[in-house]
Structures are given as C-alpha cells and as structure tokens.
C-alpha cells in the first residue's frame, strides 16, 4: 500500500503501531518520522521517537515484544530467554536477530556472541543492535578502536540509543581521547534528559516541560521534533495564535529538508569493521597475562551451614537511620538515598567493640537534627548510648563516620563527614572526646565516606573526606503525580560532582588545610561514595633507609562515573597519581561506569591478592 501511496498517514500510523506492538521499534521509526513530516502526528507517536529502542506497547504481540519490555527493565536474561523460545524453523528477521545478539552481549556470553557476529547475515548491519553488540563485545576484548567504530555506527543509525552513547564516551575516554569523551558524555546527559522530560509529560503534561524538551532536542540536532513539541505547547496556551503561526512557518521550512532528522543509515564505507572469526578464540598473544601467584595456602574449609541471628533488640541496639525530621517513605532526594555509616571502635580499651553511628533526621537548608549521632558502649551483654556523656553527639545530618588513632596515643578517635563540616572527635582517654572542626562547607556540599589512614607511608595518620556533589540540586525531591508517585528520579546526572579532599598528617598534627585529590591543575569532580584504603598495586616510594616503602593505594567508587585508584606520590606535581584505567578497575565489565556504592575487599579467588 505504501508503494502506491507513500505519504498515506493512516497506513504509516497503523504500520508504526503494529511494529511497536511486535517489539520491532526500529521498523516503526521511518513511519513515525513520516508522520512528523506530514504534520499529522499525535503526541504519543512523537514521544515514541524520543528513545525509539525503549518504546513498547501496553498490548504486546509475541515473545519479541515481551523481550523488549524485559530489556527495558535491564532483565537481559529474561529477554534472551523470550527470544530463544521462538521456534527454530520460524524465519528470523535481521532486526530481531541483531537484538538477540545484543542481549547475549549484555549477558557476557562471549562465545555465542562471536559466533553470531561472524555468521550473521549482512542485512543485520542495518540495525543499531548489531553494532551495539559488536561494541560491547569489543570492549570486553579490550579492542577499544573497534568498540569506538561499532558504537559510532550504532548511534548513527539510532541517535536516541543513550546506552551506546554512554559506552562510546567511555571507549573514547579509555583510549585517551578525552575531548571526544566529554562531548559524547554531554550528549548522553542530554539524551537522558529528553527521556526524563518525555516521561514527565506523559504523566503530567505542562507547557514548560514541553518547551524544555524542545530545547534539549535542539541541542541534539533534532529540529523537527523540537518544533513539533513547541507547537503542541503553544497550542495549549490562550492568545498564542501569532506564536503558532510562526511555528507553522518554521515547521514548513524544516519538514521536507534533509536536516529534519539525524541520519539513520550507514554509508557502506563505515561498515568495514573487522569481525571475529567463527569458532576461533581471539589472539591474545600480545596482550599482558593476568599475574598469578606461585604461593600456596592451606585454606580452612567453610562451615557446612552458617546461621545468623539478629540480636540488636536483645542487646539494646535500637539505632535507625532517618532521612528526614518527619517519617518519609517515598519521593527521596538524592542525599536521602545514601544512608549513613557506622564506625567500629574500642574507645575505652576494654577489649569490646563499641559502635558509633551516623544519624540524619534533618532537612535542608540547615540540616540541623534533634537526634545526635549515638555512641553505643558495649557493656558485656548490652550496649548503651553514651553520646551525651562522651561528647560525641553531632547533630548535623551525617553520612560518613570512621575511627582511627590520628594522634597515635593508643586511643582511637572519631572523624565525622556531615553536612556543613568535617569534624574530629579526639579521644581524651577518659571516655570523653574533644571536638574540633577541621573544615566548614556550605550545606550544598554533599559529604559521603571518610577514612583515617597513613596514605603516604610517612608513619603518620592522614584523613580522606569524600564528597558526592556540591549543588542546591541535591535538596530537590522528584515531582510526583496525583497518586504520589515520582514522575522521574533525580540521579547523579542531574548535577556536577565535587572534589574529594585529603588532610595529611605532620609530626605536630594535621596540616592546616585540606587539599583536593587531583593529578593535574583541573579539579576532579566525582560523585564518590565508597572507599577502600590499603590495596597493594606495587606502588612504592624511597624510605628513610634507602629501602622502598609500600604506599597504600586508595580505591574510590563513583556513582555513574569512572572509579578512581589514587596513590600519593612525593614526585607527582600535585602529590597524586590516578591509575584506575591502567589497573582495569575504572569501569565495569562493559567498559562503562558501574555506579559503585558500597565496596568490600577480600581475597575472592584465594591467590593471595585482594579483590574488590
């Protein structure tokens, strides 16, 4: 029918709807764009173009559509199972086959992915899922140039594929092409913004949100979609006839131009990427091998059963971290999702473990709480909160706490990372603590973890204070609909990060001021949460007796940004070296940030080396 009437609106509308219901949105894209060019496009159809690979239907048809829904929820195993359930005798269309390969790539099924990429039909290369699968697989093989080429093809065919844009940015960053990495990271954030605004419009339409969405689409070189959203917004306003006429004129000049949409196909020259040979193991002879230990250990056998019992109530441990002054069960601001830390400390040297707990229970902008951080003293079979008597009851919203003997007098002290300040509580040795404010910050500064440790191998204790962000945006709670449900979540992409800070120890105490942890002139703004100090990555410095001294490396986990591995260096210009990429711990297994939060270190594979 389209051959006879290629501009027929009804046919394009029916075809696009059917393809979306069948889980084949890439085949709906052409018809949706034609509806836009005609000017006869409905708001849900226009919204479907925001992220074409993520669009689904409330009335799915068949296993492919169900697989698309599962993939949208990041249930890649469920999606792959749905795709594998199709009869083997059924004709497998190239777009669905490419989608299946991408799901297997997400699941790290390397051998199957290699075979499918090598044996797949050439017509699969017309679909972004094929190139996304190749890009993911190339990242796992450490072939970053192939990954860059593959993801570039994926986002050329589908400029709305935020996942591939993000991975392209990380591939550029790993290859040292930082300017291109930053450009694509900004593009990724704008793509996420369009998805968020579109979801917000679907839930609660407003003219301001539509105008904001149009601005974001303009920044992504999608002018026709932008002018259509502006027209919808203007038509909802009274006395907007002149504005609508101007937008109609603008639409007429854009609709039939070649620049109405980004290109969605590849020139043949861009498809020439080396593919893996079927059934052959990649040649890794020139790649460094994973070091293995020659040491042997007599590891104890694990117990056959492990039994855990919650005895908190029995011993009087009644602490509960509160995220606000009043009880709150939904629509959390970003700082409310992070929880609070706990420090294990034997502050009275009686051989029993005491606990110092962070408490929130406060609201912006002052973050002043009526509930102080409790210090639970362990008294044989019970614990008792003695914070008021000990002088440890900090009343600012606290996230990070740690214990360590900063002045090396034999008594562990406490450090607190809270809204507004970093505080040291020095153990006097008589059961009480002396309070010192080490750093004052505005309450737009979102603190996170804190640690006391010797990081430069000088035998003196140092202090590391991490931060997640520095912006008033951290106070914002997500908007909710009439049912009280958030229409979108405020995540780390909504604001810039913050610099992490170090305070080095000296023979007469700590230095006067914190220094930013950075390896160059530029401030490193991360969204840091977890920290592990003491990893052995072979970093040494010259000691006093001409012998090398091991330096404690610091692993910092960042939310939706690459993780960091810092070592303090007495030869580096700014005192720090960052080597996470070199050691392979900057990104997750797909070469993209893994949203690190809580971290533990242990010898997982029993080779004598600590793992994360």
TrEMBL record:
Region annotation (Disordered) ranges: 258-301
Keyword line: Signal, TPR repeat
Biased composition range(s): Polar residues: 284-296
Keyword set includes Signal: yes
Sequence ranges of the TPR repeats: 128-161
Name listed for the protein in its UniProt record: ASPIC/UnbV domain-containing protein
Species for this entry: Rhodopirellula baltica SH28
Species lineage: Bacteria, Pseudomonadati, Planctomycetota, Planctomycetia, Pirellulales
């Amino acid at each position: 029918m389209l051959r006879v009437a290629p501009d027929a609106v009804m046919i394009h509308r029916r075809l696009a709807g059917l393809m979306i219901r069948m889980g084949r949105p890439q085949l709906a894209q052409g018809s949706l764009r034609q509806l836009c060019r005609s000017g006869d496009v409905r708001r849900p159809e226009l919204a479907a173009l925001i992220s074409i690979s993520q669009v689904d239907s409330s009335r799915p048809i068949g296993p492919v559509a169900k697989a698309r829904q599962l993939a949208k929820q990041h249930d890649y195993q469920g999606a792959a199972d749905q795709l594998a359930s199709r009869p083997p005798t059924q004709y497998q269309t190239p777009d669905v086959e490419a989608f299946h390969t991408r799901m297997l790539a997400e699941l790290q099924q390397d051998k199957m992915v290699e075979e499918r990429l090598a044996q797949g039909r050439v017509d699969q290369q017309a679909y972004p899922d094929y190139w996304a699968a190749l890009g993911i697989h190339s990242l796992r093989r450490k072939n970053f140039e192939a990954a860059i080429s593959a993801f570039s093809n994926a986002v050329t065919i589908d400029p709305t594929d935020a996942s591939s844009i993000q991975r392209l940015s990380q591939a550029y960053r790993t290859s040292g092409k930082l300017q291109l990495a930053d450009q694509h990271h900004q593009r990724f954030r704008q793509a996420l913004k369009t998805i968020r605004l579109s979801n917000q419009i679907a839930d609660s339409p407003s003219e301001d949100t539509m105008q904001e969405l149009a601005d974001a689409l303009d920044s992504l070189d999608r002018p026709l979609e932008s002018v259509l959203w502006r027209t919808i917004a203007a038509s909802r306003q009274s006395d907007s006839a002149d504005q609508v006429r101007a937008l109609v004129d603008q639409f007429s000049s854009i609709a039939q131009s070649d620049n109405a949409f980004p290109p969605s196909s590849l020139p043949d020259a861009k498809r020439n990427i080396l593919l893996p040979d079927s059934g052959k193991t990649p040649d890794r002879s020139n790649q460094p091998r994973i070091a293995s230990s020659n040491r042997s250990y007599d590891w104890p056998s694990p117990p056959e059963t492990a039994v855990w019992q919650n005895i908190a109530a029995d011993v009087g441990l009644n602490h509960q971290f509160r995220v606000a002054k009043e009880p709150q069960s939904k629509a959390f601001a970003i700082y409310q999702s992070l929880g609070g830390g706990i420090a294990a400390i034997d502050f009275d040297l009686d051989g029993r473990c005491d606990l110092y707990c962070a408490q929130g229970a406060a609201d912006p902008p002052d973050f002043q709480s009526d509930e102080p951080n409790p210090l639970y003293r362990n008294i044989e079979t019970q614990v008792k909160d003695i914070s008021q008597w000990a002088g440890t009851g900090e009343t600012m919203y606290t996230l990070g706490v740690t214990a360590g003997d900063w002045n090396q007098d034999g008594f562990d002290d406490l450090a607190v990372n809270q809204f507004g300040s970093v505080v040291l509580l020095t153990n006097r040795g008589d059961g009480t603590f002396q309070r010192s404010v080490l750093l004052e910050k505005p309450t737009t500064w979102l603190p996170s973890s804190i640690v006391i440790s010797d990081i430069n191998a000088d035998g003196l204790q140092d202090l590391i204070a991490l931060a997640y962000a520095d912006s008033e945006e951290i106070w914002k709670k997500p908007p909710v609909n009439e049912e009280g449900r958030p229409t979108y979540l405020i995540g780390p992409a909504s604001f810039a990060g913050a610099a992490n800070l170090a305070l080095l120890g000296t023979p007469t105490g700590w230095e006067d001021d914190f220094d930013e942890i950075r390896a160059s002139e530029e401030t490193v703004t991360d969204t840091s949460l977890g920290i592990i100090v003491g990893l052995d990555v072979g970093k040494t410095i010259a000691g006093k007796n001409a012998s090398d001294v091991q330096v404690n490396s610091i692993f910092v986990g960042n939310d939706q940004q690459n993780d960091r591995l810092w070592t303090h260096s007495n030869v580096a210009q700014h005192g720090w070296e960052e080597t996470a990429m070199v050691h392979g711990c900057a990104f997750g297994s797909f070469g993209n940030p893994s949203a690190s939060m809580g971290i533990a270190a242990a010898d997982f594979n029993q080779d004598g080396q600590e793992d994360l």
